[in-house]
Design a protein that fits this description.
With 619 residues, the protein is an alpha+beta fold. Helices cover 40% and strands 16% of the residues. It contains 19 helices and 19 strands. Helix 2 crosses helix 8 and helix 12 packs antiparallel against helix 13. The longest helix is centred in the first third of the chain and has 30 residues.
Length: 619
């Protein structure tokens, strides 16, 4: 018995020690990469000391004597805060997720390699001016110095997945252009529409198409447009829900707006922007403040992997972005040579596919061979979208030459409207409505977009690819893109709604968001003669839905005819009905106060309007 007790006591002690050691190891793993923001650091290559101040939110404020030193420090600090996220994004843009996450990501890697982010980045690098290259090289140096100085203090994900990050290269930063272009693309759903078109009759096919081309109002209005949206929205939302259930892309939502000094309590313009991208931890944005002595002072949001402020303000201007939903992706069905499957027909001749053998490594060391094919338009994507018996290629704006990095570099330094619009000219694969305000009192909004010029007699689906008939013929000239500058109403706004009105001569897109957010923003901007910063905060936190306001009569009418509700449903219906009655009362009060057309007894008796509301439902 004594021997058994000794053995059990020994095992218990070992278990306790193992638990303590395990806890200590996990704690060390989780805390080893947490930086001490009070430490002074010595970085190689600095021309002069750089001062970094971290505020209460740990947001870095960086003060440098020149741009080289600024961006070197930004690279180090961003790696200090976001190295795992940066390395994950690097693996995404290079199609190498299988190397760290396993074999299940092989098909994802193959698609990402088909997008050729790195190839475009190398083309941009080859044409990069010295100032841009200096920023990229200095940032790269800062990232690499952090990794070199902290080999034993890397974020815990590297230890868990048992790998070490590779050396950072400038093209890794530029790959974020392709990443954002793909994330904000429009048109991927058209393959689904093409499949549906072959499965149902033309009448039903037309019924499921979103009628977004008729939806108003537009960001850049046309005074001649008088189309009403009230009867279109219910059907349109059903169409969007149907497509979303099928796995079709429905874009996320962002808002921006600005008011002139004439509509501001400060006498100067006010600008607001909130960009809604996919939720993640950490978030996709990285807030920072950058100052180069006697050159620029810019603050705002950057992207991991890049050294610049994407949206923010400097001492002269402020700017922000919302997605434009440009139709910048097309699919083509290729005619394959029946004798030689490595060829496709184009303008009466057979052309060779560019066939590439791809080797994908996995986290277990396995190497998997795959093949990608490319036409002159782009990659063959049939297998990714599961289209049997057809060879479909894709052309998208991310394959076209652009230089969003240069645009943002110039925006960080812009002083006026001309500088601002000049910077936007190379912003083409990531199409955005960019809002503007400056300290001279000007406001504006510009559609900075690569809008393809191409034939549009087939609005949705897969295009015939055997000729150049449906090929892109370039982009809409920058000067002919829609914009607003100091409009007479004193404000500009966008919310992913339709970009231009029906009279605009070029096709921009089809997959817009419904106009309800935009309409609510305009309603609030128009509600007061003068708006304050507090008013802007209230607008951003506003929860009223114009869509719900429009739909509630239909919903209440349907509910009023519903029989045999259970107790919970009846209670919910009564709560909803009482809320509607109070809302109607408030509407009538506003009408009375504005127009004086109601009696005081009407205003003071909300229940009196219940009958009116019920009657309105049945009209």
């Amino acid at each position: 018995m004594k021997i058994i007790k000794r053995i059990l006591s020994g095992l218990l002690i070992l278990l306790i020690l193992a638990t303590i050691a395990g806890f200590a190891f996990v704690r060390h793993l989780g805390h080893r990469a947490i930086p001490d923001y009070n430490n002074d650091l010595s970085l190689k290559g600095l021309h002069a000391p750089v001062e970094v101040y971290r505020d209460n939110y740990a947001i870095p404020h960086i003060y440098a004597d020149d741009e080289h030193d600024l961006y070197l420090a930004v690279g180090y600090l961003m790696a200090e805060d976001r190295l795992w996220q940066m390395d994950m994004l690097r693996h995404v843009t290079e199609g190498r997720l299988s190397e760290i996450l396993g074999k299940s990501f092989v098909d994802t890697d193959l698609l990402l390699r088909a997008l050729r982010f790195s190839e475009k980045s190398e083309r941009i690098l080859a044409q990069t001016d010295p100032a841009t290259r200096e920023a990229l090289d200095a940032f790269t140096d800062g990232v690499n110095q952090y990794m070199e100085n902290n080999k034993r203090r890397l974020p815990p994900e590297f230890g868990i997945l048992r790998y070490k990050p590779e050396k950072w290269e400038p093209f890794h930063s530029l790959n974020m252009v392709g990443y954002m272009a793909w994330d904000l693309k429009a048109g991927w759903s058209e393959i689904i529409l093409s499949t549906l078109q072959k499965s149902i009759d033309s009448v039903r096919y037309q019924q499921i198409l979103p009628d977004l081309l008729r939806i108003q109002p537009a960001v850049y209005p046309d005074k001649s447009s008088k189309i009403s949206t009230s009867k279109l929205l219910p059907d349109m939302m059903l169409h969007l829900a149907f497509l979303q259930d099928l796995g079709a892309d429905v874009l996320e939502a962002s808002n921006n707006w600005a008011v002139s000094g004439a509509k501001s309590t400060t006498g100067m313009p006010l600008l607001a922007n909130d960009m809604h991208l996919s939720l993640s931890v950490p978030g996709i944005w990285y807030q920072m403040h950058q100052v180069v002595k006697d050159k620029f002072n810019v603050s705002g949001l950057g992207l991991p992997c890049t050294p610049l402020i994407i949206c923010g303000h400097n001492d002269s201007i402020a700017w922000g972005m919302t997605n434009t939903s440009v139709d910048n992706l097309d699919f083509y069905e290729e005619t394959v040579n029946p004798i030689d499957s490595g060829q496709y027909a184009y303008n009466g001749k057979w052309k060779n596919f560019d066939v590439r053998n791809i080797l994908i490594k996995t986290s277990t060391g396995e190497e998997i061979e795959k093949t990608l094919r490319f036409s002159d338009r782009g990659p063959v994507v049939s297998s990714f979208r599961k289209i049997p018996g057809r060879v479909v290629t894709m052309h998208w704006a991310g394959d076209e030459m652009s230089n969003e990095f240069l645009t943002v570099l110039l925006l960080n330094r812009a002083d006026n409207w001309n500088d601002f619009t000049g910077a936007l000219k190379t912003f083409q694969s990531i199409s955005q409505n960019v809002v503007y305000a400056d300290k001279k009192g000007n406001i504006g909004l510009y559609c900075a977009a690569g809008v393809p010029l191409r034939k549009r007699d087939i609005p949705f689906g897969i295009l015939p690819g055997d000729t150049d008939e449906y090929d892109w013929k370039g982009y809409v000239p920058f000067e002919e893109l829609p914009y607003l500058f100091n409009p007479v109403n004193g404000y500009v706004a966008s919310a992913n709604n339709r970009t231009a009105a029906a009279g605009y001569p070029y096709h921009i897109g089809s997959w817009y968001q419904p106009p309800d957010r935009f309409a609510r923003i305009i309603e609030l901007l128009s509600a007061k003669e003068l708006l304050s910063v507090e008013d802007f905060k209230s607008i951003q936190l506003d929860q009223k839905s114009k869509m719900a306001e429009r739909y509630m009569p239909f919903i209440m009418n349907a509910l009023s005819e519903t029989k045999n509700m259970n107790p919970v449903e009846s209670k919910a219906y009564e709560i909803l009905k009482s809320g509607i009655i109070l809302w109607l009362h408030k509407v009538r009060q506003r009408q009375f106060l504005k127009h004086g057309t109601l009696s005081s007894s009407d205003v003071l008796s909300p229940m009196k309007w219940a009958k009116n509301f019920t009657e309105a439902l049945t009209e």
